[in-house]
Amino acid sequence: MTEKEKLIQMILEDEEIQRYKRIEEHINKNKELKRKINELKAIQKQLVNAKEIGKTEAVKEFEKRYQERLSEIEDYPLMSDYLALQGDINDMMQSIISIIEDGIEKDFE
Predict the structure, then answer these.
(1) Which chain positions lie within coiled-coil regions (predicted)?
(2) Distance from the CA of 10 to the CA of which of 42, 51, 69, 109 falls in 20 to 30 A?
(3) Segment 62-71 long-range contacts (CB within 8 Å, at least 24 positions apart)
């Protein structure tokens, strides 16, 4: 088994990742929640576009709609766990990337 395969296996077997996947399966089965998540993503795109073209009133409106939709999503059971795990996993992946980058830089020194 290569080092890459060992790393992938370690990540896939991580308890937090396993829990994240189980929660994600439940979320993906909930059509209403998926609809709201898609709406949130659409609002987020509109918000970014409004910021880019300097539409301050539109930005305020989209931020308000974004927060309302996000609150609705966070009210679903397991969503707070899901979002917390997502943050933890992102942090873990950033740490892994940093370790790999540091190792590569040391190899070139």
Answers:
(1) 23-53
(2) 109
(3) 66/40, 69/36, 69/39, 69/40, 69/43, 70/40
